[in-house]
Amino acid sequence: MHVIYGGTFDPIHHGHLRLAVELRERLGVAEVSLMPCHVPPHRDVPGATSEQRVALLELAIADEPGLTLDERELGRGGASYTAETLRQIRGELGPDKPLTMVLGTDSFAGFDRWQEWQRIPELAHIVVVRRPGPGLEPGSVPARLLEQRAVGDAGALYAAPCGHILELDPPLLDISATGIRDRILSGRSPRYLLPDAVWQEIRRQGLYGA
Ligand code: ATP
């Protein structure tokens, strides 16, 4: 099974990395592919360029063979629409291999506003990671979609190439990229929230106002 975990990663931090490792173990895969987005269509412009974010990601996963980097959304340029990305990956994997994308409850809550969202379950499974916050609005399109497509365990994802939704509730570290950028900008230390090598590179390049 191919598992992709997308995000802005601006910058990558231990919250992301811990989740990636938890996912790898809970989904029973050899690797999880981190996929930074180029121009995020649903959020503010990032604080570092794509190349800078990738350089930080490379440093973060350099000694961890279970985490890989998928740069396809950067290479394509322009807005990154998940349906388009999944179609491309599906083309490479062929029709039968399970493909799974991971997102947080907060993102999934707005799923029906995504470009071509109806196509997405025809291309991949979805793992929804529960995050603190209000959760899904009862009766909303994403809540109904989850009801219709929910499976109880990761094993079910191996039985079909796409179409299932699995909710997971792994332990999450209380770290956000916004909090890290705020600390750096105000001259406080973000140390231990992200890998040391990443923090050193941020300082070396003077990113985020460091
Ligand atoms: P920002 O603070 O800039 O919004 P972020 O830290 O939330 O950034 P993103 O790059 O937006 O990071 O997140 C990528 C993915 O990682 C999203 O699916 C998000 O739900 C998830 N994520 C973010 N922070 C954590 C965390 N501390 N633990 C687990 N998952 C996280």
From TrEMBL:
Domain Cytidyltransferase-like residue range list: 4-183
Keywords: ATP-binding, NAD, Nucleotide-binding, Nucleotidyltransferase, Pyridine nucleotide biosynthesis, Transferase
Pfam families: CTP_transf_like
Keyword presence, Transferase: yes
Family note: Belongs to the NadD family.
Protein purpose: Catalyzes the reversible adenylation of nicotinate mononucleotide (NaMN) to nicotinic acid adenine dinucleotide (NaAD).
Name used for this protein in its record: Probable nicotinate-nucleotide adenylyltransferase
Organism field: Marinobacter azerbaijanicus
